[in-house]
Amino acid sequence: MKSYYKTADADWYKQRLNGLMYFLFAAFSILAIRLFYLQIIEGEEYSRLSENNCIRLQSIDAPRGLIFDRNRNLLVDNRPSFDLSIIVRDAKPLEETVGKLAQYINTPQEELMKIINSKKGGASYKPVLLKSNIGRELLAAIEVHMFDLPGVVVDIRPRRYYIRNQSASHLLGYLGQISPAELKSGRYESARPGDFIGKFGIEKSYQNYLCGNRGGSQVEVNAVGQVVRVLETVNAEPGHNIYLTIDYVLQEKTENLLQGVAGAAVAMDPSTGQILALVSSPSFDQNSFITGISHEDWKALINNPMRPMENKAVQGEYPPASTYKIVTALAGLEEGVIDETTMFFCPGYYKFGDRVFRCWKRGGHGNVDVVNAIAMSCDVFFYQVGQRLGVDRLAWYAKACGLGVPTGINLDHEGSGLVPTSLWKKQKIGIPWQKGETLSVAIGQGYNLATPIQMASLTAAIGNGGMLLKPVIVKSIETVEEDIVKIFEKEQVGVIPASQKTMEIVKKGLWEVVNIRSGTGWIARVDGLDIAGKTGTAQITSRKAGDPENREEQENFIKPHAWFVAYAPAAEPKIAVAVMIEHGEHGSSAAGPVAREMIKTYLVDSELNKKQTTIGEIDPIVQNLIME
Amino acid sequence: MFDRRLIQYFDWWLIGLTLMIGVIGFALIYSAVNADDITTQNDLHVKQMIWFAIGLAAMVCTFIFNYRNLDQWGGGIYLVSIILLICVLLYGKHVAGSRRWLAMGPLTLQPSELVKISVIIILAKYYSKRASIRGFTLKELLVPMFIVVIPFLLIVKQPDLGTALLIVLIASSITVYVKIERRSMAWLIGSGAILVSLAWFFFLKGYQKQRILTFLDPDRDPLGAGYHIIQSKIAIGSGMLFGKGFLKGTQNALSFLPEQHTDFILSVLAEEWGFTGTAIILILYLFLLIWGLNIAHGCRDTFGTILAVGVTAMIFWQVFINIGMVMGLMPVVGVTLPLISYGGSSVVTSLIGIGILMNISMRRFMVE
Questions:
Q1: Residue A533: exposed, middle, or buried by beta-carbon count in 10 A (0-12, 13-18, 19+)?
Q2: Known catalytic membership, residue A322
Q3: Which residues 5-64 of chain A have a CB within 8 Å of chain B?
Q4: Could you give the CA distance from residue B34 to residue B186 in angstroms, rounded to a whole number?
Q5: Residue A502: enclosing H or E segment and its boundaries?
C-alpha cells in the first residue's frame, strides 16, 4: 500500500528494474534451451548433415516463353539439352574419375582437367560445366556408368531452339550470355552469371516477359553427390509466350525473294499497323549463338560487306529516292503551288541557275500533270514543285508523314532517317542552304534518308486514307495457359496532312504507276489484285564498302539502291509493303517483283494457309520440366 | 575541477566484459573469413580491430562529460540524427538496392545506427520530466510516438526494416519500463490488434501478405532465407558439445553460410566452439546486460536510470534477435550481434552505448 503514496522517484524506478531482470532471464533461457536442443539433442543429425555439406540448392531454370506467328505457328521453342558437369568435391579420386569419364565420352583427359583447373578457386561444391549439349548417345553412355563416376552430373536444361533456321533472325533476335555490365545494370532482376538473355530483336525487347522466374530445390545429396531426398521445391514459372503479328508464310516467302541480295522488306496491315513481315537480308544462324559461335564465324559475320548482323528494315537508312515524290506531290497540292490541272513540260532536263538537273528519262516526258508525273516518276515535274515549295515547307510535310523520327517499333537501334531543313544544314554542316539542293530533296535524293519501316508506314497511311499508325510487331503476350497478359492495340500516331481530294489525286498516280503501260511499276501488276505503288532508284554518291582490289565488286557497290513501295487492293488495302534492295539498280526491275510476289502471297496464297498449320510439338522432356 | 572519485568509481567490470566480447569477435571474424582458402578479404579482423579502437575512442568521448548534459543536448542530437536520415535518402550510397550509408570522405556513416542512441536519449529526457506512479496516458504518449514514428518511416524508406523495428522495440521497452497507465495500455493493445487485422484482411495485397508471411516464417522461402536458416542450423547443430575447433568449421569453410562475418557470425562460433563456447558467450552477454541494469539501479536520478535501461534494452534486443535468428527462432532481419559482428557503424554504436553506461556508472556517487 505504501507505494501508492510515493512519487515516481529514483527508488520507484529501481523497483521496476526487477521486472526487467526476470524478462532478461526468461529471454536468455529461451536462447539457451534452443541452443541445447540444436547442439545436444539434434546435434548428431545436424552433424551427419554437415558431414558432406549435403543440403544443397539446385536451381531449376524457367523455360523461356515461346514465340509464335499471328496464326499461332510456333517459331521459337525450347529443346532439352544435356549438360555434363562435375562437382569437384564429390568426385574423389578426381584424376581417376575424370580419366574414366574421358574414356566414356571420347575426350582427352587433359582437356577435361584443363576446364576443371581453370575453375579452381570457385566453391568446390558448385558444378563445373564440362560439356554442354552432349547428345543422347553420350548421355546413355554416362548414365550406364553413373555409379562409377562420383560427382559427375547431367543436367537437363531447356535450350532455345529456332525452328526455322536463318529465318526472321533479325526480328526474333538471339540470346547470349549475360555480360558483367548487364548484370550490374539492374535491368535483369533475377539474372545470374552464365544466364542467357535476349541480346537482339524480340528476344531482347521482350526479355522480361519471356524469361520467367527461376525455381529451385533444397536437396540432400549423398557422399557421391547424388540426390537422395528433395526437401523443398519452388517451381519455376515459365516465361510468357509471345504471339507476333508476322504472317509466317509471307515472312518465309519474302526471305526467299531476297535470297542472295542485301536489302530489306516490310509488310504492314494498313488498317491496324500490324507488321506482317519484316525481313532483312542476308540472314544469320541464330542457333549458333546458343551453342557458342566460334571466333572465326563471328568475325566472318561482322566483316561481311552485306552486313548480315544489321536489321536493315529498321536500322538501315537510305535515300528514299522517287518514293519520296509521294510527299512532294502531297505538299505541292496542299500548299496550292500546283493543282491537278498544272502541267509542266519535261524535255528531259531542267535548267536551274547555271546548273542542269536531268530527268531519269533522257528523252523527256513531254507535257505531264501531277498524276502522270507520279506514274512515270518524272523528275522535272517534281523539281519545279520542290522549287516552288522551298525546302522547309517540304520538310514539314515529310515530318508529318512520319519521316525523320523513329516509328517507335519496339526493336533495337531503330534509325530515325533524316528530313533536311535549311536550319538543320546550317547547324550541322555550317553552310547555308543552296536553292538547287531543294530540287534534289524534292525527288528524294540529297540529304534525305528513310528506313524501310518508315516507308512502309507512310505507304500504309496513304493506302488507308491518311491514318499514320505505329508499327505493331507483337499481337499479344500470353501465359502458358493462354491467359492474356498484354494485348497490343492499334495506335494512331498522326494524320497525313492532306485533304480527301489531294489523297485521291496522289492515290490515282500511285495506281497508274502499276496499272498503265507507261507507269514505272508496270512490272508489279497482277491481274485482279489492283496494286498501287511507287518505284525509287537511289543514286549513291559515296563509295563506302567493297574491296578496292576487286573491280567487279567495286562497280557493284556504286550501283543505285532499288525501292518499291506498294499497297493493295488499291480501294481498300489489306497490305502495304516497302522493299529496299541495296545496289539493286532499278526500283522497277529489282524491287518491284519482290513487292508483287509479297502482295500475291499474302492476298492469295496466304489465305489458304490461314487455317492453323501444325503447331510445332513441344518436346516431352521440356514439357515435363515445365510441368514439374 | 576534476573529481578523483571518477577514477575510483571507474567501472572495470563493464570495460572488462566489453573487451572480452570484442576479442572473441576478432577471433570469430578471423575464422569466418580465413577458414575458406579462397576468400578475398582475409584481413577483415584487422579492420574490425581498427573499428573497435575507433569505437573505444568514441566511448571515451562519451563518458568524459557528465551524462546529465545529455538531458539538455537530447533535442539537438535527435534533430541532427533526423537530418542525417533525410540526407541518406537524398544523397545516400546505393548498396544492394537500399540506401543506408552516407559517404563522408573516406568514411561511411550509417545514420540509422546513431538514431537508436538519439531516440533513447530524447525519450529518457521526456519520460524523466513527467514520470508518475500512475503511468503515462495515451495523451502523454503522443509525443513519444511522434518521436519514434519519424525515424521509423525514414528508415523503412531506405529500406531497412530490421533497424526500423529495432527502434520501435527499444522505444517500447523504455515506455513499458516507465509504465503505461492501465486503461491506456488496454486501448493501445486493442486498437493495435484491430488495425493489424483490418490491414491484413482489407488493405494488404496478396503478394504483400506473402512477403510478411515469408518474413515471419523463413521456411516459406526455401531458396532464400529458408536456405540460409537451414545452413545456419546445420552449422550450429553440428558443433555439438565441444565444437569442431578453431578454423575447422566445415559449413563456414565452404561459404555455405551467408554473411558469415556479419549477421551470421554466431553460427561460426557455435560450429567451431560447440555448446560450451556458445554458452560462454551467452553468459558474457547476460552478465553485460545484468550489469547494465545494475548501473540503472545504482544511478540516483531518473534521467540516468531510464537512459541506462534504454541502452541495455538496445543491446538486449540486438543480441536476442540476432541469436534467435541464426537459430531459426526469429525472422531473418539484418540485425547485427553487438560488439562481435563485423561492421564499423555497428561496433561504434555499441561502444557509444557502453560509453553512456560507463558515464552513468562513474558518476553514481553524484547527487542531483
A1: buried
A2: yes
A3: 6-10, 12-14, 16-17, 19-21, 24, 27-28, 30-32, 34-36, 38-40, 42-47, 49-51, 53, 55, 57
A4: 52
A5: helix A500-515
Q: What is the mean pLDDT of chain A?
A: 85
Nearest to A55 among B133, B231, B320 (CB): B231
Whether the pLDDT of residue A616 is over 60: the answer is no
Backbone angles phi, psi at A492, to 5 degrees: -85, 130
Phi then psi for residue B142, to 5 deg, are -60, -45
Contact by Cβ (8 Å): A244, A70: yes
Is residue A391 a contact partner of residue A385, using CB atoms and an 8 Å limit?
no
If one counts every other C-beta atom within 10 angstroms of the C-beta of residue A79, the result is 16
A357-411: per-residue pLDDT in tens? 989 888 889 999 999 999 999 999 999 999 999 999 999 999 999 999 999 998 8
Of A322, A457, A588, A606, the catalytic one is: A322
Residue of A nearest to B255 (CA): A123
Give mean pLDDT, residues B38-60. Answer: 81
- Which residues in chain A have Cβ-Cβ distances shorter than 8 Å to B240? 39-40, 43-44, 47
- CA pair distance B353, B314, nearest whole angstrom: 8
CB A116 within 8 A of CB A167: no
Classify domain A262-276+313-609 at the CATH topology level: Beta-lactamase (3.40.710)
What average pLDDT score do residues B128-152 get? Answer: 87
Answer yes or no: are the C-beta atoms of B11 and B295 closer than 8 Å: yes
CB contact under 8 A, B250 and A50: yes
A2 touches chain B (CB under 8 A): no
Q: Are A366 and A346 in contact (CB under 8 A)?
A: yes
Output the CA torsion sign for A354, A360, A364, A368: negative
User: At a CB cut-off of 8 Å and minimum separation 6, what does A270 contact?
Assistant: A459, A460, A461, A463, A464, A469, A567, A573, A574, A575, A576
**Residue indicated by cell numbers 508518475:** B132
A267 close to A274: Cβ distance less than 8 angstroms: no
Which among A298, A201, A279, A182 is positioned nearest to A242, based on CA atoms?
A201
Domain boundaries in chain B?
Answer: 5-362
In angstroms, the CA A459 to CA A471 distance is 12
Query: What are the residue ranges spanned by the domains of chain A?
Result: 262-276+313-609
Q: How confident is the model at residue B2, as a pLDDT?
A: 64
User: How do the residues of chain B divide into helix, strand and coil, expressed in percent and rounded to 5?
Assistant: 70, 5, 25
Most confident of A290-304, A322-336, B221-235: A322-336
pLDDT digits (tens, 9 = 90+) for A11-58: 788 888 989 999 999 999 999 999 999 999 888 888 887 776 677 777
pLDDT of residue A627: 43
Residue B262 to residues A616, B28, B38, B268, Cα–Cα distance (Å):
52, 10, 18, 10
What residues of A are in contact with residue B131 (Cβ under 8 Å)? 8, 13
Kindly report, residue by residue over B164-195, the tens digit of the pLDDT: 889 999 999 999 998 888 888 899 899 999 99
The pLDDT, as a whole number, for residue A598 is: 94
Lowest mean pLDDT among A546-550, B126-130, B327-331: A546-550
